[in-house]
Design goal:
The chain is built from 15 helices and 9 strands. Helix content is 58%, strand content 8%. By secondary structure, it is an alpha+beta fold. The chain has 2 domains: 306 residues, no CATH class; 99 residues, Protein of unknown function DUF952 (ADP-ribosylation fold, Alpha-Beta Barrel). The protein is elongated. The strands form 3 sheets. The protein has a 4-stranded antiparallel beta sheet with strand order 4-1-5-9. A 3-stranded antiparallel beta sheet has the order 3-7-6. This is Threonine/homoserine efflux transporter RhtA.
Length: 438
């Protein structure tokens, strides 16, 4: 099995989940607050373009994707995602240049909630659509007849966010079953943002010349670098870290914090105190996020077992999985060391974001691939109900010829989840055979 080199992702993968998510949210909207202060020195569209450019370049510098020249098809897919993200950033900045930050974010959630609801067409999806519609009406000022151009820009940003989710799911589906899929998603987005910003540079320059917009001062450009890091690089990376630790269903619940976070950041950094209707509207949007279905097929794509990058576009799991108890295979010294620490964290958790598990009936496959001839191995029998992190059945790398999937644990394995420890020894020829029972 292929292992990714231990890099920045190995350190981030061990970050606590809630602080990581909150840090990403505060960084994202803190960057937006900085951007609002730049609108007097450069148009919102220019600030949005610079944010995308610098955010993409920072992510590329951190991830250093080596496949850029050798995988042109992947670069094209990433560039399409980058163009949608660039458009979303620009339209969102046009919105927050006219309306409060909390209002814009609440309206923007119209996109992802609609994607989730339309993808399922169930009662829960309909309820979430009604809730988000009520929230958008309240925060937009419609009851008082004061709908602004800024609110309409926010609706446009929401539509583009929906497009980002759908396209992002298709880009992520290209990595189905690959080791380090979370890191690959970050690499794709970094390259996509960079390519999109560079490709649209002539348009940005041309429009600036035609409209007489002067070049932003060096200090403003430097702050745009800060905005790119805070609003793009940091939240995108931390979101992937959180996704690999808690799964997409719980991540969807965490997203309900974003409209509230945006309102708090707007009040603290920009002195944008929300009115009573805006508070009620934000609350309705939060309710819509909590109601939105967690397991949703990517809108506009065939129903399939592939998984997307967004919690709104998660696909059902495949059922082609061997029966039997779940086990983790490891050398006995590794288990003894883990037992003294209270949890098992093998290198794979830090390298690729998960721990390799197996059904008992299939454990001979990794045993023969990695430990042929060793007689110091043990099988840790696991009770999934005692495991706090998500277990997903996914393809191996490379995929098994019979189509078997293997369970991956996206978090540490607590020793309290291990119910029994069984010795596992090879036969006289050094190979391991399959087992139906212990």
């Amino acid at each position: 099995m292929t292992r990714s080199p231990s890099t920045w992702s190995s350190r981030l993968s061990a970050a606590p989940v809630w602080p990581a998510f909150v840090a990403g949210a505060v960084a994202q909207y803190g960057g937006a607050a900085v951007a609002v202060g730049l609108f007097t020195q450069a148009p919102p569209s220019m600030v949005g373009w610079l944010r995308t450019l610098f955010g993409g370049l920072v992510v590329v510098a951190v991830t250093r994707p080596s496949w850029v020249l050798s995988a042109p098809r992947r670069v094209v897919r990433a560039a399409m995602l980058g163009l949608v993200t660039l458009s979303m950033n620009i339209v969102f900045y046009e919105a927050i240049s006219r309306v409060d930050l909390g209002v814009a974010v609440a309206v923007e959630f119209l996109g992802p909630v609609a994607v989730a609801a339309v993808g399922t067409r169930g009662a829960r999806g309909a309820a979430s659509l009604v809730a988000v519609a009520v929230g958008v009406v309240l925060v937009s000022g419609a009851p008082a007849g004061t709908v602004t151009v800024g609110a309409l820009w926010a609706v446009g940003a929401g539509v583009l966010w929906g497009g980002y989710i759908v396209l992002g799911a298709r880009v992520s589906a290209a990595h189905e079953g690959a080791v380090g899929r979370g890191r690959r998603g970050i690499e794709d987005l970094g390259v996509g943002l960079s390519v999109a910003a560079v490709a649209t540079a002539p348009v940005v320059v041309g429009v600036s010349v035609l409209t007489g917009v002067s070049t932003p001062p060096a200090a403003a450009v430097a702050l745009c670098v800060v905005v790119g890091v805070l609003s793009s690089a940091v939240p995108y990376v931390l979101d992937q870290v959180v996704l690999t630790r808690v799964g997409r269903a719980r991540f969807a619940l965490l997203l309900a914090l974003l409209p509230v976070t945006a309102a708090l950041v707007g009040a603290a950094a920009l002195r944008q105190a929300p009115s009573t209707p805006e508070i009620l509207g934000i609350a309705a949007v939060v309710g819509a996020i909590l109601l939105a279905p967690r397991e949703v097929p990517a809108f506009g794509t065939p129903r399939s077992p592939r998984r997307g990058v967004a919690p709104w576009t998660v696909m059902p799991q495949q059922t082609n999985t061997p029966p039997g108890p779940l086990v983790h295979l490891c050398p006995k010294p590794t288990w003894l060391a883990a037992h003294s620490h209270g949890r098992l964290e093998p290198d794979s958790l830090h390298d690729v974001g998960f721990i390799h598990l197996s059904a008992l009936s299939q454990v001979h496959v990794p045993a023969n691939a990695l430990f042929r001839g060793r007689d110091d191995l043990v099988l840790l029998e696991i009770d999934p109900q005692r495991v706090p992190a998500e277990i997903r059945w996914e393809d191996g790398d490379p995929p098994h010829p019979d189509g078997w999937q293997f369970p991956h644990l996206y978090g540490p394995l607590p020793v309290t989840a291990v119910t029994h420890v069984h010795p596992y020894r090879p036969g006289p020829d050094g190979t391991f055979s399959s087992r139906a029972s212990f």
